[in-house]
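Give me structure tokens for this 636-residue protein.
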Amino acid sequence: MPADVYVRMLRKLGEELIFICGSDTHGTPIVVNAESLKITPKELVEKYHHYFDATFKKLGVIFDNYGSTDSDYNHRRTQIITKELINRGYVYPKSIELAYCPTCQIFLPDRYVEGRCPYCGSVARGDECDQGCGRHLEPGEILDPLCKVCGMKAEFRVQEHYFFKLSEFRSFLLKFLEELRGTSNARNYALGWVKGELKDWCITRNLDWGVKFPGRDDLVVYVWVDAPIGYISSTEEWADRVGANWEDYWKGDARITHFIGSDIIYHHCIFWPAMLKGAGYALPSAVIASGMVKIDDKTFSKSRGYVVWVDEYLENGFHPDLLRYYLVSYTSHTKELNFSWQVFQEKCNNELLAVLGNLAYRTLLFTFKNFGEVPEGEIEEEVIEEIKGTIELVKASIEEYEPKRMVDSVMALANFGNAYFQSHKPWELVKSDKVACGRVLKNALQIVKALAILFEPVMPSKMELLWEDLGMEEDIHKVSVTAALTPLNEGIKLGKPRLLFDRVEDDIIARMQEILHQRIEGGGDEMVEKTDMITYDEFERLDIRVGRVVEAIAVEGSKKLIKLMVDLGEDKPRQIVAGIAELYSAEELVNKEIIVLANLEPATIFGVESRGMLLAAGEGVLLVPDREVKPGDRIR
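Here you go.
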């Protein structure tokens, strides 16, 4: 949405541009999820590609082209760029040791393997230390590999793969990043990596699903090769449709701006520009990295229920523009964005309804009742300067990639408009001097016109309604920012205005909070395909281990709780509180092997912190292994 707002505002400022996006369809997570659902990867990605495309459109996010990295365009462009990198000497073969599962008889790429991070020792997946230091891991780097398919130990075997000479681009990247525009978090994070260690990058994987590496039917290119190339191929698809030349954008001097999440800065600011430079393509001009989304101050998680589904939001009668406003006005683009139904209600009622909606409705209704048309009058210098100042603030905010600052500036103009209307008291003036009252209303209407134009990128549908109520016949989506200063034509007929915003009542917010609460209590759900089945990806998030109780003490004041110190193969025992005192005494639990969910969010129970959960059946009978195993062994 911030990208869509940015694009809409740039167009109002006279920029010629195209807005490109697409579905990222390759990589091991796609294959793993498809296998768990017993469908092909192609069936999975086509289903979600159409769902995402439709969802964006429901929210007014309109791309010039929404492509797919599995399109013929992207397969062809990825092959072309990969061959160019090979021809220029930037890609070379190298025999490396890779995790191989002798049971499944396959090499294990990325998320098919799990083990320990070679840098920090944390549990990690094959391509990233996702639970520790966050480093990108090259194939073969992971320690103590385990096959994610069968759970058995993997071994290392030699296989030939292909590497991109990323290390040769260190000097280029240092200069490129110093000049890169966008948000400082993107630039500084990438500079930290480049100034440190820059290794050559393995760009092939042992998968059937993906873009074939040139000349090798047994290898595909790594997903982070073909995924960003999707920007180029989506541009090609658009260009073929409209009769344009895609090279004007990717081999010319166009300004290329990326809006991304902060979790993929490494790929967009290091891998991607190096690939483009190596293959002879245009470089990104700016990278804008957003903060991550939270729900009620909890980490966004579909599996745990901390999620708000767009379909659910719309089905309960909320307008898309309210969500657009919330998401771009809540906080600075680089900070975490927390979605709360209560804050959503406050912003809708206290800002959209009480400030913007109030000004628009009272101005239009009073004018309609007393004049029926736009009255005569000159636009006062004070009003002109206020609108001019707002436009300058909007331009500055867009240039600095700060949509919240832009929204705050426009809302300040609405506050000015309310103060103007209130201080001039047209309800009194109309009785004593109708001509003077007309002049006041003309100025108030001019402020409303400016607000419609400046808020259109944020709330396109609502501002279209306001534009119609002003009696305007032009397409507001094509009206430039400068039109905010063009005086309204006198005599334009006005109809009875509509309320732009309704009050968001307590009962609907209570209902939405209850839906969220039920989802969290139920452990999450999916809106796209409701099912009692879970994917393997969801299961693998559970860190279930064997533990040995080293100490057990009854919790004072409780008849059911026992505080356990459990050896989970970590540096020190983990404290866990369990309600099993009615079935087990503290003494008989010592040295007992138990099963523990280790990555459950910590909780305080009866004043005692618990960092895990014992697994039990029936009325509390503990699950135990049927033979001795060492503490910390994973359950698979």
